[in-house]
Amino acid sequence: MIFQRKYERAMKNLEEKNAGSPKALQDDDLSNKVEKGDVLAMILSALIVIVPVALIFLLIAVGAGYFFLIR
User: Fold this and answer.
1) Which residues contact 24 (CB under 8 A, 6 or more apart)?
2) Which of 6, 55, 60, 69 has a CA-to-CA distance to 25 between 20 and 30 Å?
3) Do 7 and 1 meet the contact criterion of CB atoms below 8 Å apart?
């Protein structure tokens, strides 16, 4: 890397700064665990957010097509 020394110095500074924080907040295993219903909840929430926006864009496209082709 071009800025290898700056990167290493910044990472060392960050480690020193976070040395006093609790270990549980830095544990990678805790952040990667997914509970039983989490995947379904994420899928449903994505559908709730994405589907209405996609329908609005689809209606706009159909309306524009209708306006330019039929009228």
Assistant:
1) 30
2) 6
3) yes
- What is the DSSP track for 2-54? TTHHHHHHHHHHHHHHTTTS-HHHH-HHHHH---TTHHHHHHHHHHHHHHHHH
User: Is the CB of residue 12 less than 8 Å from the CB of residue 4?
Assistant: no
pLDDT score recorded for residue 28: 61
Domain ranges of the chain: 4-70
For the whole model, what pTM was predicted? 0.47
**Residues 24 and 30: beta-carbon distance below 8 Å:** yes
